[in-house]
Write a structure and sequence with these properties.
466 residues; alpha+beta; 21 strands; 26% helix
């Protein structure tokens, strides 16, 4: 008979790692493997989304996938097992029992430690889970399903214990729990119609229907009739705020209500800059590199920071200190399907124009593919956001937390402009610089913005000022 020790060595549980800096959870976006698939050390098995980015997770050992503990779309705590792998396939199978339904498996808690026979290990497989993690902790809602052991391992535990642990809460698959949470439905009040008492998606919708049928109560004293607001797909679509969007929202709220923002504007003739862009595209030293107006705007901002280094700083509230940065990690705001992210070019101040172009190209390509790493979005010191690509003239950008300035670039348009005493059509744009007034006073902010505009108006200053 297969022993518990042999099972522990044979079945390995891969836990959700902390792929960022102190992150506590991640959402499983996509599984690349299924039970029965063979995996090798270093093979990517799934893609997860954290509060910072989407990240691919490689498995750290060889074997055959035994089970996936969570469905796609489920948010899982860091340190929770997400996949079980049989690292010794082909050997004698453990004692078998009747197959356990996935939904029932997900709901059954681990056997309490005190019920285990003397000498038995409290965990079954691999490096296992910590003693603390096997105990349920109180939660405000059923937002994240409890960790589910693999079916085969539960069969072993059932035989050894003599009985299967009883479910502690209504049975439902993770997506159904998520639906119930979104609709504000307590699963304990839902009448299950699925096999073995499992709550289905239809059961949740049925429970939500009575609450959605009455017309909303008017705030006016006159009981005027109003159409019902449906919670289904016909009239409203509810999108859970999580991952990158949730983190962005929290960061922007914190920034807007912590740092006293000031925004200044300047309209500048960038005709010479646009001509330089075309010249650089034909330059053999820039062949294969991303050359566009944003490249020269980024370089202009770096020049302005070099001339006014005090703008590159952060506010340390805990120590009541201003931290001057002697390096520039230049953030570039990028709109992605998952939300706004701001990866940054490390040590941008030390890069030549070709190096800056190469880094900018890699940053944009990685962001579009959704492969930006959490490290690439940490440690920024100043940011550029190009709202002009959407046809917008300018805006009042909100500072990224921990930074003192952000430059918004508006659309570059052909406009009538007085040039050398005559009205001529010129390429014109509007720049907006938002800054933290605790760190940057009006004089310093104005100097930075004026320097950026001066370089873009006469880009030869890049040579003399850089």
């Amino acid at each position: 008979m297969t022993t518990m020790t042999e099972n522990a060595a044979r079945f390995r549980e891969f836990k959700m790692p902390d792929v960022g800096e102190g992150l506590t959870e991640a959402e499983i976006l996509k599984w690349y493997v299924q039970p029965g698939d063979t995996v090798t050390d270093g093979q990517v098995v799934c893609e997860v989304e954290t509060a910072k980015a989407a990240v691919e997770l490689p498995i750290p050992y060889d074997g055959v996938v035994r089970s996936l503990h969570f469905d796609e779309g489920v948010t899982v705590d860091v340190g929770t097992a997400i996949i079980t792998v049989d690292v010794a396939p082909g050997t004698e199978e453990p004692p078998a029992a009747e197959p356990v339904a996935p939904s029932a498996t997900a709901e059954a808690p681990a056997a309490p430690e005190e019920e285990a026979p003397k000498g038995r290990q409290p965990v079954l497989v691999g490096y296992g889970v910590s003693e603390a993690s096997t105990k349920r902790r109180p939660r405000k809602g059923a937002s994240v399903p409890e960790q589910a052991p693999a079916e085969a391992l539960r069969a072993v535990q059932t035989e050894l214990n003599g009985q299967a642990p009883a479910p502690a809460r209504p049975l439902a698959k993770p997506p159904v729990r998520k639906l119930a949470k979104d609709l504000g439905i307590d699963l304990a009040t839902v009448v299950p119609t699925g096999p073995d008492g499992v709550v289905t998606r239809e059961d949740v919708h049925a429970a939500a229907t009575p609450a959605a049928e009455p017309a909303p109560v008017s705030r006016e004293t006159t009981p005027a009739p109003a159409p019902a607001v449906q919670t289904g797909d016909a009239r409203e679509t509810r999108i859970p705020v999580k991952g990158v969007r949730k983190a962005t929202a929290q960061a922007m709220i914190g920034s807007a209500f912590t740092a006293p923002h000031v925004t200044e504007f300047v309209t500048v003739d960038v005709t010479r800059t646009m001509k330089l862009v075309e010249e650089l595209k034909a330059d053999k030293d820039m062949a294969g590199l991303r050359v566009n107006p944003l490249l020269l705007i980024a370089k202009a901002l770096l020049v302005a920071i070099k001339r006014n280094p005090d703008v590159n700083a952060s506010w340390d509230e805990a120590n009541q200190e201003i931290v001057l940065k002697h390096y520039v990690n230049l953030g570039i705001a990028a709109a992605t399907p998952r939300g706004l992210i701001v990866p940054n070019i490390k040590d941008a101040h030390a890069k030549t124009l070709p190096q800056l172009a190469e880094s900018l190209g890699e940053l944009v390509a990685t962001a579009r593919e959704g492969k930006t790493s959490p490290a690439a979005m940490s440690g920024g010191t100043v940011t550029i956001t190009n709202v002009g690509v959407f046809g917008v003239d300018t805006g009042t950008p909100i500072l990224n937390p921990g930074e003192s300035a952000i430059l918004a670039v508006g659309a570059i348009k052909l406009q009538p402009w007085i040039h050398k005493g005559k009205v001529k059509p010129r390429q014109v744009t509007t720049l907006a610089l938002s800054f933290d007034h605790r760190l940057v006073d009006g004089e310093l902010g104005s100097k930075v913005l004026a320097d950026v505009a001066a370089v873009l108006e006469r880009p030869k200053r890049l040579i003399t000022w850089a």
